[in-house]
Fold this sequence. Notes:
Layout: H1 16-28, E1 32-37, E2 45-54, E3 57-65, E4 71-80, E5 85-87, E6 90-95, E7 102-106, E8 115-119, H2 122-126, E9 134-137, E10 140-152, H3 159-180, H4 184-204, H5 210-213, E11 217-220, E12 227-241, E13 248-256, E14 259-266, E15 270-271, E16 279-290
Parallel strand pairs: 8-16, 10-14, 10-15
Antiparallel strand pairs: 1-2, 2-3, 3-4, 5-10, 6-7, 6-9, 7-8, 10-16, 11-12, 12-13, 12-16, 13-14
Amino acid sequence: MHSFLKSIGFNNIVTKEEEEKLLDEIIRYSNRKSLVSLSRTGSAQYAEYSCDVAPNIGITVSGQMDEQEHFHRDHYFPFLTPRNVTTTEEVFIGKKSDNDSYGGLCEDYRVGVSIIFHLQNAVDYLKLNRNEETAIQCPTKISGLASEGTILFPTLKTAEDILIANDETKQYAKMMSAAKKGDQDAIDHLVIKEIDTYSSVNDRMKNEDVFSIVDTSFAPYGMESEVYRIVGIIMSLEERINSFTKEKVYVMEIYCNHIIFDVCINAENLLGVPEKGRRFRGIVWLQGHVEFGK
């Protein structure tokens, strides 16, 4: 059972039999089918069947198509199609070890940690005749599926605070880039900055709650490399209905650590009332759509 299937409105799928029945329906009613040859002879093809269950939300079933056009399912994943370009930094693409899916890794200095995600458009990648792990400079759109979440009130910030924070982010990105190239002055500056920040946060936490200090955060969660615990500001919000189950889901545009991406969560798994300007705190599985060739 996929851990984030409930995120797109399938809280009612609890048994393996129900899961198999759902995947059969996804293949039967798929509105998109993609194929790419895995060999020069074309004897085997990588195939994807995708079915939308709500606008820009659905399930993709992947596997191989043999010479007799029999589909052999390998894996599946629920998805939320991202709307906005999240980063234009270099992306490292590689095949996963447990199945025929692919993942991406991006180092965006604004975030502070590596962004690791499940690649949504694997067929587009394979059409480039990529047989080995490689790095590509392309725009990348990121989205996330949340298994659970809580709504938090916003922190108090003035217009001047926001401008200062934006300037500090630009400076931090420049310093990180220089440090990666071996600039010792940049490395020393970053170390001192981290010590000052740690000291300042410790002093404030004596009288304040951590969520009144930390506006947004982006941190790896658990043993799965594509899963993160985030705190982000809700920039926009939409309600959508799963056409299969009639369950309500929220799609939120989230501003987190100076990047923007979409997050989908089942309304039943969200504590609190989401509104623009409030913050979302939750556990998300990241996905990415890389704009190859752009």
